[in-house]
Amino acid sequence: LAMAPPFPRRGLETLRLRREREHVLHLELHRPEKRNAMSPAFWREMVECFQDITRDSSCRAVVISGAGKIFTAGIDLAEMSSDFLAVEGEDPARKAWRLREKIQQYQETFSVLEKCPKPVIAAVHGACIGAGQWGTGWGG
Predict the structure, then answer these.
(1) How many domains in the chain?
(2) CA-CA distance, 25 to 107, in Å (whole number)?
């Protein structure tokens, strides 16, 4: 059996991961000042956290919630727009190919939830906008 990674996990900007009780991890979207909007760091951290959670043999379930008054405001357009507008390429076809690759990287954030062998429960409260609906079964 794989050794359980240490929790709480250190060095997260947008998430807070902690052992809520024996066998249950609590992953909190943690940018309450931005209404838990999804920044570039969020997309990377979700993948890293769920890779750790998958390897954690002591974890049997994961609960996802949002800090503050709402679950999430969705994609942080102010921070994310430059990521998509700055796609480089010599011609439209190469730009489109690189944009497709970037979108696939972001899609992995949702795919890790689907691939997780443990039950993942979204404790949605308040607003849940746009990309926030990935874990709820309501959209995407």
Answers:
(1) 1
(2) 23
Find where tokens 């998509």 sit: 84
Are 118 and 61 spatial neighbours (Cβ–Cβ below 8 Å)?
yes
Q: Is residue 124 part of a domain?
A: yes
pLDDT digits 0-9 by tens, 104-126: 888 888 899 999 999 999 999 99
pLDDT digits (tens, 9 = 90+) for 39-93: 999 999 999 999 999 999 999 999 999 999 999 999 998 887 777 777 777 888 8
**Cα separation values, 52 from 45, 98, 115, Å:** 11, 28, 13
d(Cα 60, Cα 71) in Å, to the nearest integer? 23
Range of the domain at 102: 15-133
> What are 64's two structure tokens?
């996802």
Give the predicted TM-score (pTM) of the model.
0.81
Whether the link from the prior residue into 8 is cis, omega within 30° of 0, is yes
Find out whether 27 and 93 touch, Cβ atoms under 8 Å.
Answer: no
Q: Is 26 a domain residue?
A: yes
In the block, tokens 């308040």 appear at: 126
- Is 94 within 8 Å of 60 (Cβ atoms)? no
